[in-house]
Prior knowledge:
With 326 residues, the chain is of the alpha/beta class. It is built from 13 helices and eleven strands. Strands 5-2-1-6-7-8-11 form a seven-stranded mixed beta sheet. It has a four-stranded mixed beta sheet with strand order 4-3-10-9. Helix 7 runs antiparallel to helix 9, helix 7 packs across helix 12 and helix 7 (198-219) crosses helix 13 (306-322). The two termini are 36 Å apart.
Amino acid sequence: MNTACVFGLGAIGSWLAARLALSGVRVTAIARGATLEALRARGLVLVEGGKREVVQLRAVAGAQEAGPQELLFLTVKANDLPAIAPQLRPLLGPGTAVVTVGNGFPWWYFFRATSGGINPTLATVDPRGSLWRLVGPEHAIGCVVYPAVRVLEPGVVEHVYGNRLSLGEPDGSLSARVRAIAAMLSAARIEAPVRQDIRTEVWTKLALNAAYNPVSLLTGATLGQMLDDPAAAAVLQALMQEAIGVAGALGVRVPMQPRQLMELTRPLAAHKTSTLQDLEAGRRLEIDPVAGAVAEIGRLRNVRTPALDGLLALARLRARLSGCHG
């Protein structure tokens, strides 16, 4: 496997495309607007470790131009995924592996998993079932994302920290395709452990995001400022505990308690969440596919999430008033 397509050249997509291309992978990047113009004019610029590298890759405007792919990385925002599903058809062949690289509850989560009677296409994640129908969960490879990357200008991204993309088949198998993708990422200097229970890691990250992201949206605080304020830290702990309870209702045991999860993030004290960065940049906010999905599953499984429900109401209002609701 030596070719890959990256759909969406925002922060994480640009970083991933650059790392892969620098390792020798033939990358097709699907971008738009000023980013596409920049890629075609000068290439993709990656700022990392004090160095600035210009990466040349194939940049196209749409899936039709890209054609069928062996490996497709979807790197758009979670709330944009359903809308792009119809555009993905020209990229998909019978054996195409699709790795969704982003935050939020995975659209493929209930494929080959016990749903407890829940419709596999959640209203907060895939409201019309577009991804399930048009992409197909059989193509999906699970991915949990850890790097923090920021866009400095169109076509220029800076890697801030983190270097791991955890992978896993929805059925837990160590398939040839997931091992090949892990090898490709490893060759690009990206840690890519293959998990046989990717859903546990999904929920561990989701518990953090469902707490930090909406609180940061309402307060404008960095992770450290939230952790250092006793009252805010108590709210974070309550939110994480509710998310852990919802995970348990789906048979997933998150291996850490809220205090342990919070301490994990202490080294990132100066960091702003992606949601806060999006608010400051005037971009659409990932509220429903992250915290909203946790609350929706809680309702469907009769798990109360009062702290999260109240916070979501305020976060959605904040998003609407800022013009960033999505």
